Amino acid sequence: MKDYDEMRHDLIKMLKELDENLGGINPEKSHPQPKESVFDAEDKVRQEIDKVKLSMESMDSDSYSQCLLCGKPIPQKILAANPFAGLCGKCSPSDDDPVV
Ligand SMILES: [Zn+2]
Predict the structure, then answer these.
(1) N or C end: fewer C-beta atoms under 10 angstroms in the chain?
(2) What is the pLDDT of residue 41?
């Protein structure tokens, strides 16, 4: 899994930054904010953290580079653009190439 070393490194960095963001959102430390927006922001950061953790977990298993729908390998090109991509180019609805 040497190919993913760099990606994993990036994800760990991302996790760290997100954790720091969570600390920054803490209303007791920063300026008072409406409670709802604090929860919203915290929720978003937690979702990002979940995504990163999920990616790292799938990296450990062999499923990381496989399309969730067809099981074919996801091209590195797609993973480089979106490390969270779970679908190959053919199955991804947001593919740049129009599916005919
Ligand atoms: Zn696919």
Answers:
(1) C
(2) 78
Domain total in the chain: 1
Q: Look at residue 98 in the predicted model and tell me its pLDDT.
A: 47
| CA 82 to ligand 1 center in whole angstroms | 15
Neighbours of 39 (CB within 10 A): 13
**From the CA of 74, how far away is ligand 1's center (Å)?**
7
Largest CA distance in the chain: 53
72 within a domain of the structure (yes/no):
no
Nearest to 44 by CA among 34, 55, 56, 36: 36
Taking the C-alpha atoms of residue 85 and residue 93, their distance in angstroms, rounded to an integer, is: 11
Rounded distance from Cα 89 to ligand 1 centre (Å): 7
Low-confidence residues of the chain: pLDDT under 50: 1, 95, 98-100
Full residue range of the structural domain in which residue 30 is found: 2-65
CA 43 to centroid of ligand 1, rounded, Å: 30
